[in-house]
Amino acid sequence: MGHTSPGLNLSPVDAPILILIGTQTGNSEAVAEDVAEALADAGHTSRLVDMADALPEMLEDYARLIAVLCTWSDGTFPDNAVEFYESLVAVAPDLSGLAYGIIGLGDHLYDPYFLTAAYRLADTLDEFGARRALPTFEIDKGPSPQDLDGAQAWALRCAEAFEVRAESS
Questions:
Q1: Containing H/E element for 39?
Q2: What is the rounded CA–CA span in Å between residue 36 and residue 44?
Q3: What is the pLDDT of residues 88-114, one digit of tens each?
Q4: Is residue 30 part of a domain?
Q5: C-alpha angle 117-120-121 in degrees, rounded to nearest 5
Q6: Is 16 in contact with 46 (CB distance < 8 Å)?
Q7: Residue pair 100/67 in contact by the 8 Å Cβ criterion
Q8: What is the pTM of this model?
Q9: Is residue 5 part of a domain?
Q10: In this structure, what are the phi and psi dihedrals at residue 50, rounded to the nearest 5 degrees?
């Protein structure tokens, strides 16, 4: 979606929000695209990246992250996110400069595995020093139009929380 010019010094408030997408069937991608559009409409720049194309080291280049991912089957990460997550754990980057939020997609029919991947990612980000801006936004069996509206509103609140944290740093 948005981009920045090379060599441009941006404050954390102006810096793009990295949106990582972990999807199995495309639902997470649809939610992420809606979130990016809502953020753009509110004046925020974002960069959508499929987790299959993401490297853990790139998290050190961003101050703000929204991850949108589903939990698959019996609590596993979606196929496109497995390698990213395993690399993240292996690299263990210093994420003390990163604030984040997570939108998790799942289905309560698969309890006790509902949103397991989203919560494992959150715990790992916390372990490496990242700061959670808002509690995880949960989508069950969606995304319905109400889920998409809720995710957009949550993302705008998350962006506001990023700004407050950046201004107080």
A1: helix 27-41
A2: 8
A3: 999 999 999 999 999 999 998 888 889
A4: yes
A5: 85
A6: yes
A7: yes
A8: 0.89
A9: no
A10: -65, 135
Give the chain's domain count: 1
Residue 122 lies in a domain: yes
Structure tokens at 3: 């981009």
Whole-angstrom Cα distance, residue 82 to residue 150?
27
Instruction: Give domain status of residue 3, yes or no.
Output: no
**Rounded (5°) CA angle 158-164-168:** 145
- Find out whether 33 and 151 touch, Cβ atoms under 8 Å: no
- Joined together, the tokens standing for residue 99 give 């604030």
Distance CA 21, CA 107 (A): 18
In 3D space, the residue among 23, 61, 54, 19 whose CA is nearest the CA of residue 36 turns out to be 19
pLDDT digits (tens, 9 = 90+) for 37-55: 999 999 999 999 999 999 9
**Rounded Cα gap, residues 85 and 72, in angstroms:** 14
CATH number at residue 150: 3.40.50.360
Q: Which domain holds residue 63?
A: 17-168
Query: Which CA distances in Å does 5 have to 8, 10, 60, 152, 161?
Result: 6, 10, 18, 26, 25
